[in-house]
Specification:
The chain contains 13 helices and 15 strands. The protein has 379 residues and is of the alpha/beta class.
Length: 379
Amino acid sequence: MDIKDYRDKIDSLDDEMLKLFLERMAISDEIARFKKENNMPILNKKREREILSRVSENAGPELARYARMMFSNLFSLSRSHQRRYVQVDTPLSDVIRKAQETSPAEFPETGTIACQGVEGAYSQLACDRLFSFANIVYFKNFDGVFNAVEKGMCEFGILPIDNSSYGSVAEVYDLMKNYNFHIARSIKVKVDHTLLMCPGGKMSDIREIYSHEQAIGQCSEFLKQYGDITVHVCENTAVAAQRVSEMNRADVAAISSRQCAELYGLSVVADGFQNSEYNYTRFICISKNLLIYPGANRISLILTLPHEPGSLYSVISQFAALGLNLTKLESRPLLGRDFEFMFFFDFDASLNNENIVSLLEELSKGSEMFIFLGNYSEV
């Protein structure tokens, strides 16, 4: 036999497998109708475990793992298809429907907005681009922004979450699980860093540089050239500029924005030195209540998964079954747990699609911690 003969056999088996797959899905549809009539959930973990156990035993030790993976994926496909027939009102779907009905038709132009840092922070720039006029309240740290929104002190809050060249803002992700909030919108802001000094300062005089850890990381290649300069981490790039201005020394500088040079009376001694010209920071605009504005096309959520092989794969396969584009997957350790993690998912979808609502409901049932953060658009 040559390779063509083997391939012909594979093709023949594939045709048989497809016929069996279609037959199985047809029976799965009948089961879905039965579940709907009898108010039964789509997911039956006990039944799936029994099948996987039988499949593993029948496949033998060499192929047991592969057989389990194939059938696990088949279960995900079946559940995804069954959602077309089983639409049950649940607490989550009720919350979503209420938000869709009561949210304003347009994103607001003004409001009281919480930002971290001081005047000139990139959070302020993001805020100014989202709102035509904002009454900004500044807080020293990200905790303050979350708390102000949760307690109703501010209508919205602006938080940096990701940078295109330096990755996630870990502190913000770690704080998310501690507060009740939702994401109402997100925005990408191009970040061009400048090196600021008091008037008359020269690059050759610099002994210390102040900035936020994200900005320091985004300019790491530039800083490598000056190994004898001490770098200090500040709460914010605008705070760094303010501090340098107040120190009024000729040997200190701040990595900040050109806007801060004007605000704090500093001079630009270098600019455009970040590691990448394509340097964007993504900010989220958070609200206390769930607000779903027209055109919302991105969903964010947090969930934990069982600490066992294949648990993450099982979730991702459900996204794939619906043809969803997963745009962000972030894991953060759970304090007090033995190398267990919570996961942050961003994906392109709209809650106008009932299949998406059903997917969220199913994910919420299979997770110890499930937090729906919102359905929003990015500008």
